[in-house]
Design a protein that fits this description.
The chain is an alpha+beta fold and about 160 residues long. The protein is built from 4 helices and 4 strands.
């Protein structure tokens, strides 16, 4: 009798499971997509923003200002995914180094988000100054910045 009840229980469980609706792979995908957190800075590639020179001229100089008598300055409107390469170009042109910044630690910014990259380099016989800033094109908030200062030992300086 116990064996018969146990068998009926197992069979009924099996039948119940086989008649339950199953989730399709499309349903699983859409469920995981809806659980993705909303980006603080979503894709804005389809929007139009002013050119970098006009943006710089309107920019509050307390946020960023190029060095007076800069040896090199750079202004570019780019996608956020291009920031590391653009910063590397700035470093190579100003002989600051060859290491890229890691902007992958910014998961709240879409890779196609439009930003302004601005960098400036000043050098004289005693010092070198580098600085850059990445500003969101839409909100005009600073996303990244960096600067470096060091004494400059001119290899071409003639000693008496």
């Amino acid at each position: 009798m116990k064996t018969m009840l146990l068998t009926l229980g197992v069979l009924s469980s099996f039948l119940l499971i086989s008649f339950l609706p199953t989730e399709t792979s499309n349903q699983r995908t859409s469920a995981s997509e809806t659980s993705t957190p909303k980006l603080e800075y979503p894709d804005n590639q389809s929007k139009t923003f002013i050119e970098e020179d006009e943006f710089y001229n309107k920019l509050d100089k307390n946020i960023y200002e190029e060095y007076k008598d800069a040896a090199f300055s750079m202004r570019k409107k780019i996608s956020f995914k291009e920031v590391a390469d653009t910063e590397l170009v700035f470093k190579l042109k100003t002989k600051l180094g060859t290491e890229k910044i890691d902007n992958l630690n910014s998961p709240h910014i879409h890779s196609n988000r439009q930003v302004y990259f601005m960098g400036s380099f000043h050098q004289n016989e005693k010092e070198e100054c580098h600085k850059y800033v990445v500003i969101d094109a839409e909100t005009q908030k600073v996303l990244l910045r960096g600067d470096q200062y060091h004494l400059y030992d001119n290899p071409y300086k003639q000693t008496n």
